[in-house]
Amino acid sequence: MPKAERVQSAAASPADGTSGVDRLLAEMSLREKVGQLNQRLYGWQAVERAPRGGFRLTGLARAELDRWGGLGALYGLFRADAWSGRSWADGIRPEERAEVAAYVQDEVALAGRHGIGVLLTEEAPHGHQALGGTLLPTNLSVACGWDPVLLREAAAAVAAELAASGVHLALVSCLDLLRDPRWGRAEECFGEDPLLAAELTAAVVSGMQGGGRSIGKDGVAVVVKHLAAQGEAVGGRNGQSAVIGFRDLHELHLPAVRAAVDAGALGFMAAYNDIDGVPCCANRDLLTGYLRGVCGFDGIVMSDGLAVDRLAAATGDKTTAAVAALGAGVDLSLWDESFSLLEAAATDPRVVQLIDTACRRILVLKQRMGLLSTSGQAAAGKTTGTGGDTLSTARERLAPAARTTDRLSARLARRSLVLLHNRQGLLPLSPEMLTRVVLMGPNARDATAMLGDYVPPLPDGAATGVDLALRKALPNTEVVCPSGIPSALDLHGADAVILLLGGTSHRPYGEQFAANGAIAGAATVATAGEGVDLADVSLPGGQDNLVAAVRERARCPVIAVVVAGRPHVLTTVRDNTDAILWAGYPGPHGGAAITEALLGLSEPTGRLPFTAPSHAGAVPVRYNDRHPAGDVYRDAPEPVLFPFGFGLRYRPVRFEKCTAEVDRSTVRVSVEAVSTTDGDDTEAIVPLFGHLTGGSVLPRQRELLAFRRVTVPGGGRTTVAWELPAERCFAEGATGRARTDLYVADLQHTIRPYGARPSAAPAATPLSDT
């Protein structure tokens, strides 16, 4: 166990800046430097319970320490899931995390000559993937709320859990765009729009790290992933080629990268895919030219798991693969053998210089995280990163952090719901009018379907399905859950039928996994998630047949709730139901949030962050494509079922008085949001779209120029104002004849560049009365 009870702050920085790093680097041997660039171990295989209590290093971990005289980073020490095999029966429990982290740091620091600690890396795409880790809704669901402010608060709470556990690096999906719903990892995306993704990415980084990389005792460093264009992979096939030009790469996939750098991100993860044949892990133009040269990034680049080893298919062997990745700008590998072979390539002075550069970046980060000894001796027990607290205090910090995360997760769940269809204002339902409700569908009783991929096993009662939540909310109503296709008798006397449709990313224990954790072979349960790409995005398992059968036999309203990690074709659902609520993967509070929305205890105010297709063969289709998709396919003349940004609500909010002023560098736009009902305040998402013409490139159909989530007083109005850079609002290469049509809901306003001849168009034109 730890040899010292006091632990050092994760934000500690030696007073002499980086000069201490340079002195340390000069004292290190080549092998010690190469060791700092390696992250070969699966963390759950690094420690085990000792026979007489406590923990000890495994032989595998001890051999790695002896080989390098330390460790660069250790991945997944606390990871628990079906891939790792760790569960509540044998995994590291929440109250044990700080103790185990301190023990590992002691052993690593004492194993080398320089007392260097190890970076502890954990998965946290929507909460810490560890026993007791508190989960948020997945990114695609969070994006439905269009609320960077709330996401930043939730990200800070997750970071506080990680920091109290001794973690330094959080791996967080932020950069991928949902460009093809066939991709199994669609749930990890903040939707299909670059601006929305960039705003939410910045919120995650600033929330987890603190403003200006302050970190503090409750923050961790963020490694944002995946760089870049992984969502563009041909056919939605995970990790395969992104067939994309320079302009679309920069306009669509790199804005979130720039936003992460500007927010202070300390790490990036290079993706599996190639762009125009060049693997991202070997793409110097991307990792060094753009990321460091253009954006000014000065942190570390980590490869995705085993991605460097994959380069051997191009370079011929793993040693040259390592040199290719190192030369491109990768500093830290993940599980690869390749980086462990770099000593053999160090006969080349250029390789030696590259090793020094990467090692220095790792050491600078470790210095920031308090992992370098200031005395030159092993700082035993001082490097857990638990904020200068005692181990007992660190454990005490974990519980309130988890409670905060849980509370914010519930708020995010409520904001993630999108009302897609509501015939004759059926929703919300009146509880006093419900004597019998039939609840059915594949997700009717399944709380795990609400959670998404990259989740740990939850303790009993930590997540509630819709069946239990509905029974709790309707104690005087009979709620029945028949299975399969219902008979007329099953539906007899029902006041409403609620269908819980969609899919799941749940990975059961006993599933077969690839070496990087993706599902290998046929998934036994999951219909989405990493390794579960689909050729057909229709609802799985014959659910359309279920919907049609229920519609035929039911003599009451039929409501569909879609729990899913990707856009599915919902055409049959729309045509055969009276209401549709999109829930995505709303997290452990999803059952309660869905129930509240159905019964009017809360209002679904979300908007889709993706385009919902009407036909499986029409994908991919995106709102910001350059050509319209309508009337192209003879068998699917209208391929869009619900457009990007779509969302209904219970209490109408209309928009009035859209105005804009243009000067040389700025465009100022304002619009008024008006609540048409008295009573409580209501929240509204206000997106500003543009169609930019008169430039040197073919315009996109629409582009999101800005958005805001606002509170509108009951029966009152709120002015929403933006001050935007002019270059965002006009086409590339815009001439004096250029124009941009601005759209806010049913309002249109035309602007022209500063100094151009005035437009003859009216200031604001209503498009409809909705």
Radius of gyration (Å)? 27 Å
Cα shape: globular
Largest sheet: 6 strands, parallel
Average pLDDT works out at: 92
| Structural class estimated from helices and strands | alpha/beta
Oligomeric category: single chain
Supply database-style keywords.
hydrolase activity, 21 helices, 28% helix, six-stranded parallel β-sheet, Glycoside hydrolase family 3 C-terminal domain-containing protein, six-stranded mixed β-sheet, globular, alpha/beta, oxidoreductase activity, 770 residues, disordered C terminus
What is the strand and helix layout of this fold?
Blueprint: H1 19-27, H2 30-36, E1 47-49, E2 55-57, H3 59-68, E3 73-75, H4 97-111, E4 119-123, H5 139-144, H6 148-164, E5 169-173, H7 194-209, E6 221-227, H8 246-253, H9 255-262, E7 267-270, E8 274-275, E9 278-279, H10 284-294, E10 300-303, H11 307-310, H12 312-315, H13 318-328, H14 349-368, H15 391-415, E11 418-422, E12 436-440, H16 466-473, E13 478-480, H17 488-491, E14 496-502, H18 543-553, E15 558-563, H19 571-576, E16 579-582, H20 590-598, E17 612-613, E18 640-642, E19 653-662, E20 666-675, E21 682-693, E22 703-712, E23 717-725, H21 726-729, E24 739-744, E25 747-751, E26 765-766
Parallel strand pairs: 3-4, 4-5, 5-6, 6-7, 7-10, 12-13, 12-14, 14-15, 15-16
Antiparallel strand pairs: 1-2, 8-9, 11-16, 17-18, 19-20, 20-23, 21-22, 21-24, 24-25, 25-26
Helix pairs in contact: 2-14, 4-15, 6-7, 6-15, 7-9, 16-20
GO molecular function, one term: hydrolase activity
Pfam families: Glyco_hydro_3, Glyco_hydro_3_C
Domain Glycoside hydrolase family 3 N-terminal: 95-363
